[in-house]
Amino acid sequence: MNRYVATILTPPLLPILLVQGYWTRKRTPRLPDAAGTLEGTVAGAGEPIRLIALGESTVAGIGAATHETALTGQLAMALSRDTNRRVDWLVAARSGINARTSLTELVPKLAGQRADVVLVALGVNDSIEFHTARRWAADVERLIEAIRGQVGDALVLLAGVPPLDYFPALPEPLSFVLGARSASLELSSIRLAEKMKRVVHVPFQIDEKRCRELFCADGFHPSELGYRLWAEQLAAAFAKFVGQGY
């Protein structure tokens, strides 16, 4: 119900939302991407799992010191721990990117790569830019098809759209409106994953009681703890999918 209320309220609230958006950007610390190499290996036995992560600032690792402690590295460690296999990982990301521009900007960087698992983590910028759920679903579907065109028929972990109403940096009513937008895109993600083969939607789960410690200093990106817990949720979804014999 909230997303419909937010849609109705957005036009009259627009002047307030614009001012809040401006001041939020002004006062939010601009943190760098995670440092270090964009690829790595987690040691293990047997045939390696080839992992590629593609997405926005969370994949770029803002809020973490290095990619080993950001989302991709932590997911690689969780996959290795759960499977006892080596994991080779690669990051393709840009802060501020949306699903449509990922198709033209990030997918070409995958040329010559192969993957067993691809993590797609987007949605914050599409929510902020007020893209419709229909556009989002179409863009993500084309993106997944293009990724597979480069890396092969990989299993895709489609990360849930982060719920923006939980972000400490966002004031009300901006938080409410953007939270409704992200919820609308999330519902489309669920439906898209049900339609596409070997696409696993992984809901973004957040402990409201621990919300502040799961975000870094800017109140907008995960902390290293937030990345670790998120990676564990993604790894659990991978294990469940593989365990079902697909």
Order of strands across the biggest sheet? 1-3-2-4-5-6
Helix and strand pattern? HEEHHEHEHHEHEH
Number of strands: 6
Radius of gyration: 17 Å
How many angstroms does the end-to-end distance come to?
36 Å
Question: What's the mean pLDDT score?
Answer: 90
Q: How would you sum up the global shape?
A: globular
Major β-sheet, in short?
Answer: 6 strands, mixed
Helix fraction, binned, reads 40-55%
Classify the beta-strand content into a percent band.
15-25%
Total helix count? 8
Coarse structural class: alpha/beta
Q: List the uncertain runs.
A: none
Key structural traits:
246 residues, alpha/beta, six-stranded mixed sheet, 8 helices, 47% helix, 15% strand, globular
Q: Please, could you describe this protein's structure?
A:
47% of the residues lie in helices and 15% in strands. It has 246 residues and is of the alpha/beta class. It has a six-stranded mixed beta sheet with strand order 1-3-2-4-5-6. Strand 5, helix 7 and strand 6 form a beta-alpha-beta unit. Helix 3 crosses helix 8 and helix 4 packs parallel to helix 6. The termini are far apart.
